[in-house]
Structure formats: C-alpha cells, structure tokens
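Annual report, structural modelling task.

Input specification for the magnesium ion complex:
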Amino acid sequence: MIELVNVRKVFNPKTVNENVAIKGLNLKIEKGEFVAVIGSNGAGKSTMLNLIAGILSPDGGQVLANGRDITALADYKRASFIGSVFQDPLSGTAKSLTIEENLAIALKRGHGRWFRKGVNRKNRQFFTEKLATLGLGLENRLKSNAGLLSGGQRQCLTLLMAVMANPEILLLDEHTAALDPKTAELVMSLTRKLVEEMNLTCLMVTHNMKQAIEFGSRIIMMHGGEVVVDVSGAERQGLKVADLMHMFEQVRGEGIEDDKLLLS
Amino acid sequence: MTTYALLGAVEHGLMFSLMALGVFLTFRALDFPDLSVDGSFPMGAAVCAVCITKGINPYAAVVAGGFAGAGLGFVTAFLNTKLKILNLLAGILTMIASYSVILRIMGMPNLPLLGYDTIFTPIENLGFSPQIAAIIFSACAAVLAGLFLIWFFHTDMGLALRATGDNMKMVRAQGISTDRMIFIGVSFSNGLVGLCGAIAAQSLGFSDVNMGIGTVVAGLASVIVGEAVLSSRSVLRAVIGVILGSMIYRMAIAYALSFQIGDFRFSPGDLNMITAVIVVAALTFPGMRRKVGVGK
Ligand SMILES: Nc1ncnc2c1ncn2[C@@H]1O[C@H](COP(=O)(O)OP(=O)(O)OP(=O)(O)O)[C@@H](O)[C@H]1O
Ligand SMILES: [Mg+2]
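The model returned the following structure:
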C-alpha cells in the first residue's frame, strides 16, 4: 500500500543548523492497517507523515503507493488518495468560507474545478446527511462561516472533509491533541467509525499510549528519525500501556546513553 | 461641491469600481498583494488607445485592453509561482517592466484619442451628454462585473480561489494547486484593471504612460472604505461594498478638492497624499481594523 524505502530527510543541509530528521527509514504499511505512531518530541513523526503526504520531499530514498513511485508527485496530486488531518484544528478548514462551501471543496477533490456551482441542492442534501452523523447540530449551520466553529467542531469537520472524496489512506497527526478530553473522545470515535466504514488505511501519530493501544492494529515507535519499535500481529495482542511505557523509557534511556558516548 | 463635480465623482466611482474589484480579488480574496495593477491599468489604456487609432471597433479595443492587463497578471503570477519571487516584488518588477512595454506599444508617452468614436458614442447618439453617457456605461460595466464576480466566487473554481487566500495548507490537502489559483486570480484581477484602464482612456480622451500611478492605493482605499460601510461577511456584501466604496472614495476626493480654508485649497497634485491619509486613517481606526480583516 504505502512504502518508504530508505527515506532520508535533512533540514537546513550544509548549515550549522543541519538536522537529520529522518535517517534511512524503511516502512511498509499494508492495506487496512491502523498504524499508531508514538515517540518523543522531535522523533520525526510529523516529518514522516509530511513525507507521505508530499508536503515535504525526501533528500534520499523513495515513497511508493501501491507499488507506484510517488516520490516526485506534488502534495495536491496525492490528495486524491491521501486525506490528512493535522494537530492545529484551524489548519484543515477555510475560516472565511461557509461550512457547506468547505465541504464542497472537499467533495471535488480529485476532480476538475471549473465553473459549476460549488454548492447545489443535491450536494447540500448530502452534506446535511453527513453532518447529521456527527451529532453536533452542524447540519443546521450550513451557511455559517467555518471560522465561527469551535476547535473541536472544526476538527470534526476537517475529518469529514479528509475522507469525503473516498481516499485510501488517512494521515492523522496528533489530531486530538488540541482538544479537551471529551471532544477528543468524540473525534476519536468519529475516526474509528469512518476508518471502519470506509475501510481506510490509517497512520495516526499520538502521544497518548492508551489511544495507541486502543486503536493501533500495529504500533510503531520512532526515535531520532528511525523506527525503533514495530509491533503487530501476535506480539501486538496483550500489549498493555505499561509495556509500551516501558519500551518508551528504554528507548529514551538508550538515547541519552548514546549522547553520553558521543560526548566522552 | 458643484453638481458637475458630484456627477464626475459618480462617474469615476462607477468606472474605477472595475479596478477596485480587481484589487479586491487579489488583495482580499486571494490574499496576494499584487502591485502590478499600477502597470496593467495604463497597459489596458495603451493597448485600447492604439487599437482605436488603428481603426478597430472601440468595444473590441476595450476587450483587447482587458487581455493585455491579464497578460501582465500572468507574468506576475509566473514570477511568483515558478521563479519563487516574493509576491510584492514580482508585482513591482512587472509594473516597472510594463512601463517600457507601454512606451513601445504607444510609441510616445501620451496618445490622444480626440476625434475618434468611443464606446460612449452610441449612448451619446441617443441624446445623452458625454458625462451621462459615461455614467450609464460605467454603471452597466460595474453591475456586470459585480454580478460576474459574485457568480464566479460561488463556482468550484471560485471557492478554491477564495480558500487559497484563506488557508493554503488546507487547499493543497484538498487537492488544489495553489499555483494554478494564483495564475487564475492574478490574471483575472489584472484583466479587470486592464478593462478599467481601457474604459478610462476612452473617457479621458487619451492614454498616458503615467496614468497608472497610485492605482493600487486608490483601489485599496475603495476596498477598505467599502468594508467599513458594509462589513464584508458574505461575498455578496463584499462585492457590493467594493462598488459602493469606490463611489464614496471618489466623492471624498471630490469633496476634498472643493474644500477651501481661507486661501488654502487642495490641488489635484495633493490627491495621492489625500488617498494615503484616507487609507491610513481607515486602517488605524480600531473598529475599522477588525473589519478590514474580511472575515479573518
Ligand atoms: N521545517 C523544519 N525546519 C527545520 N527543522 C525541522 C522542521 N520540521 C521539523 N524539523 C526538525 O526535525 C525533527 C523532527 O521533527 P518532527 O516535527 O517530525 O517531530 P515530531 O516527532 O513530530 O515531534 P512532536 O511530537 O513534537 O510533534 C526535529 O528535530 C525538528 O526540529
Ligand atoms: Mg509532530
């Protein structure tokens, strides 16, 4: 489905700020997997997602989708089969456009955009039905600007928009991190529902171990731009938050020891 | 203010609302501060004037002026998106270069159009004075341009364009090429400004290479005044606001010019200063500042 082959990403190369964010990353994600990605700050999780979405292009290696090399494919072209939701709830919707206009933009993903009316009676009906499933009453506010919604409401809308045009892959980068616990739970249950209904392959970055255990059919831990733990299948069964925490501490500890070695 | 001055302000307000709509399209809808507008205005005028002196139908000449303006916008978009030049600088470069091109096109700095039939002639032939004819034509042009923009902003392309000015990250995530939207928006905007220059040249009876100076600021002043009058919550209100703003702005200018304290009078040379003061006042007045964000 999605494959990273020996992918490297260096920020500010050949300067004092040179930063190897991803070093020789190999990762193969199968169709239908729900991959939970954990790891400390700066581990390279967002960078990896951005490399898959095409927002960043790698300095080495290849990105493949269904066996096709998409390394050079622009992010907006990948959007026809990849949907993404980011941490910032404001980043997924256009605030000065109405809710229905935002949805209309999402509906046309992967299609030509010419001089058809963006919102017509037929797709408005469709939007109403989709919004009603959220249970937030947004179906009665189709003509309100998206900027008037709360962060949680906007994140739900973003999620709906991310999957509106039936992508194959859904990328979630700490998409509940900015929300209060109750709203986060709402967004997570919506995520589960959409992923199951639409049979999506999903990559979700989270700092919440419980969430990772609960949702991930496969859990990977990143550190220093590499995948250091990758559990799935039988190993994944019976994995508890405590186990995950333990692995996390271990990896972090090793990291510090590495630094010590370098310094001595 | 005399009736003549008032009618003049109405005429100019309507006529220049085309230009103001163009400025609105880039500065507000697309969030692209495009300064090439100062070049596409005289470009539209020059191409139109040359066409007319070559005996081409004046209406066709206006369309040609519009396309010439759009061409400049295309160049600015190219500099910005393909060559990665900062948007402000891209516009300035196009504007500067256009000066030379306009001189080449006209062959002289000023091309008079006296004695030629203009777009206003058929209306004048119905028995209207030249000024009323210009008002009628400009009103039609303003309404048509306004309706067209309102329609456009609700099409799939228009939605994508507005979203580009709002949230580029979201737009790309939704499969839209932001470069394409910049090409479309900036060309379209400069096309409107070119049309406006062409109409203005026929109304003034000449085309001048320097007639574009201050176009951007005047356009921006109209947009801002419009936003202050009709808060621009919806596209409909915003577009109507721009046309109204253009008229109010021209009336304010006419009023300032008729103003007299003792021996002091403003001269037309003070116009740029007056415009700058109007813009600064509107921008720094706190209540207005919020509205200027156009739903941001
Ligand atoms: N645009 C950028 N320019 C320079 N360095 C960057 C950039 N984006 C990320 N980095 C660096 O790359 C490394 C990986 O960052 P990344 O954002 O992928 O981490 P992350 O795992 O998502 O962390 P977090 O949990 O804090 O979101 C960090 O060292 C970061 O400083
Ligand atoms: Mg991150």
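The mean pLDDT of chain B is 92.
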